[in-house]
Amino acid sequence: MKERRLIAFLITISVAVVCLSSCAPPPQKLRSLTKGELNQFLTANNVTPLAVKKIGDATVIFYETEKSMGYYALSMDAKGTIVKSQASTNNNASMTQVSIGGTATGVPFATLVINDDNLREKGYRALVTFSDGYTAKELVSGKRGHIAPHLGIGDFKVSIESVSIVDKENNVIFKNP
Predict the structure, then answer these.
(1) Which of 22, 72, 130, 166 is at a distance of 20 to 30 A from 3, taking alpha carbons?
(2) Which pTM value belongs to this model?
(3) Sorting pLDDT into bands at 50, 70 and 90, what band is 17?
(4) What is the DSSP secondary-structure string of 142-177?
C-alpha cells in the first residue's frame, strides 16, 4: 500500500513539474537596434558616441561627456521596447594616456579612449587581453573611442588583463599594465 502511494505521489510530482515548466513564458527574444532606431535613441538622449558596435543581440554605444564616460547596451524586444543597461564613470581623460573600461559578464567587452594624440597617430591596433587568454583586436585608425568585444567561447565572467597599442610594425607603443 505504501509503495502505491509513493508511486502515485512521484507521478503527481512529475506531472506538476512538466506542467509548470511548459507554462513558463518563453525567453525574451531580443535584437540589436537598426540604424534608424540607433539614430533615434542618440537624438532623443543627446548622445554623441565615440564608438558604436553590435555585439550579439545588443548595440553598444560608447560615449564621453566633459565629466563622464560610459556606455549603453541597447536591445529591442518583440514589443518594440528598448531594453537598456548603462554604466558610467568619471572622465579621467586628462589623467591618463588611455582610459579603460567595459563589462565582464554577458558578452564582455572593453572600452578604450585613446587620449594621447601621439598614440592615436602612431597606433595601428589596440589589443585587449582578457583573463581567459582571449585577445580582442581593434584597428586604431586615428580614432579616440573603441569597443573591443570578447567573442570567444567561455563562461563569460572575465576581466581585462592588459591593454596594448602596437604600431604598423607590431612594436608595442603602449601597455597597461
Answers:
(1) 22
(2) 0.82
(3) very low
(4) T-SEEEEE--S-S-S---EEEEEEE-TT--EEEEE-
**58-64/49-55 β-pairing:** antiparallel
pLDDT of residue 85: 92
Give the integer Cα–Cα distance in Å for 62 and 59: 10
* Closest of 44, 45, 53, 50 to residue 63, by C-alpha: 50
The amino acid present at 148, given as its one-letter code, is A
C-alpha 87, offset from chain centre: 11
Q: Number of C-alpha atoms within 13 angstroms, CB side, residue 95?
A: 6
- Rounded Cα–Cα distance for residues 131 and 127 (Å): 13
8 A C-beta contact, residue 100 and residue 112: yes
The highest-confidence range among 18-22, 27-31, 41-45, by mean pLDDT, is 41-45
**What percentage of the chain carries pLDDT values higher than 90?**
75
pLDDT value of residue 9: 44
User: What are the start-end ranges of the E strands in the chain?
Assistant: 30-31, 49-55, 58-64, 68-77, 82-90, 98-103, 109-114, 125-130, 135-139, 145-149, 160-166, 172-176
Q: Is 123 left (phi over 0), alpha (psi -120 to 50) or beta?
A: beta
C-alpha cell at 173: 607603443
